[in-house]
Amino acid sequence: MEAFYFLVFGALSAVVAALELSKTSKDRITTSPAFNSFKNNYILVYSLMMAGDWLQGPYVYYLYTTYGYGKGEIGHLFIAGFGSSMLFGTIVGSLADKQGRKRACVTYCITYILSCITKHSPQYKILMLGRILGGIATSLLFSAFESWLVAEHNKRGFDQQWLSLTFSKAIFLGNGLVAILSGLFGNVLVDTLNLGPVSPFDAASCFLAIGMIIILSSWTENFGDPSESKDLLTQFKGAAVAIASDEKIALLGAIQSLFEGSMYTFVFLWTPALSPNSEEIPHGFIFATFMLSSMLGSSLASRLLARSSLKVESYMQIVFAVSAVCLCIPVFTSLLVTPANEKGGGISFSGCIQLLGFCAFEACVGIFWPSIMKMRSQYIPEEARSTIMNFFRIPLNIFVCVVLYNVDAFPITVMFGMCSIFLFVASVLQKRLSVVAEKSKTQDWATHKEREMETAPLNA
């Protein structure tokens, strides 16, 4: 393996270690033992859930190829997963507000375990069923757990600022360290122990089952709107009205869809971007480097969120702008660097530049997750939290399905340029959200003062 990869990985490791070890009292939030116990329980469960997800990611495509399916058939399977998340996942995820968030989290575990079991069959219809189940599970993973956490945090009376601590630590471990360890563990199962490409899915089922046991034994149930008079259609209408009537929620949904759409597109594009001439690149090691970059970002986010004087709406404008520049680097290199014509070999000079840019983008992803969670906890109403969060995923899933369907129709530089534009638009919308949020706070303060003045003569 080329020294360049070790150099990048080593530098990132040193920076992450330095950031974590150099934290001062200003970078830490003083909490209570009861909150720490609650936080650690949630992070343990979340890490197990993410381990179940990360173990599968690197081997899904590979498993399908071992069953003899081609690129087109595999593409349809992936589209089925995102389409399922958009259609069925939205419905199932929205039921969490009425039927209970704990129950929805258990449903995630069961659904994903069943999806893993289908990977043992080479039959296309059964694999398609597995993708549909996986799409439903994904919607629950990105809505039910966060909804349960926010509701339970508030129900127990913990300080609102402490919520950001749980978010940043969960992303640091679940989307960083656990992802790296899952990749290494999957590599051991498949390559070292020669247990076959289905073995990571069996391991994922075990982690999901352990997490489900912890949820059943230690979590309490909470609801959004448990009113029995509200059917699912009424919930959807209420969520749509909330989004349409509150500009802050609409802006937040648009920002999330633009960023996550660009992020998922990047997942499909980074391999051909770094090896346009079939260069030999260590995919697993690069994936681990990206996850380390995400850990760097979440470590920075924990420092930013710990400062009550620093508004998340302000610094995220910069994060989105930096992300736009990072994903525009392949466009710049294609124009400024002479492409290599030789097939194979090691990573090219332009590939090295792009890899550094992609690491910076992954650091932005690490900042994005806890920050968007913080904003969602502030702006999305509790009674319809899961429903609205799944509404946000509808345009995202449509976007990813369109990209997957047309991935060979456009040059890779056009795809990256499109993502860069989307991220720039997200930065502009974030600026608008900051203005609207500040205006709303000013109006609320003015209304409060008016009420005080009205009640003052009565109290005199």
From TrEMBL:
Can the keyword Electron transport be found in this entry's annotation? Answer: no
Arranged from A to Z, the UniProt key words for this protein are: Membrane, Transmembrane, Transmembrane helix
Please indicate if the UniProt record lists Transmembrane helix as a keyword: yes
Could you give one GO CC term from the UniProt record? membrane
Alphabetized CDD domains for the sequence: MFS_MFSD5_like
Q: Which domain of life is it from?
A: Eukaryota
Which residue ranges does UniProt annotate as crossing the membrane? 6-22, 43-62, 74-96, 129-150, 170-189, 201-219, 285-306, 318-340, 346-369, 390-406, 412-429
Q: Name one GO molecular function term.
A: molybdate ion transmembrane transporter activity
Q: Which InterPro entries match?
A: MFS_trans_sf, MOT2/MFSD5
Entry-linked Pfam families:
MFS_5
- Similarity remark: Belongs to the major facilitator superfamily. Phosphate:H(+) symporter (TC 2.A.1.9) family.
Q: Any idea what this protein is called?
A: Molybdate-anion transporter
- What lineage, starting at the top, does this entry show? Eukaryota, Viridiplantae, Streptophyta, Embryophyta, Tracheophyta
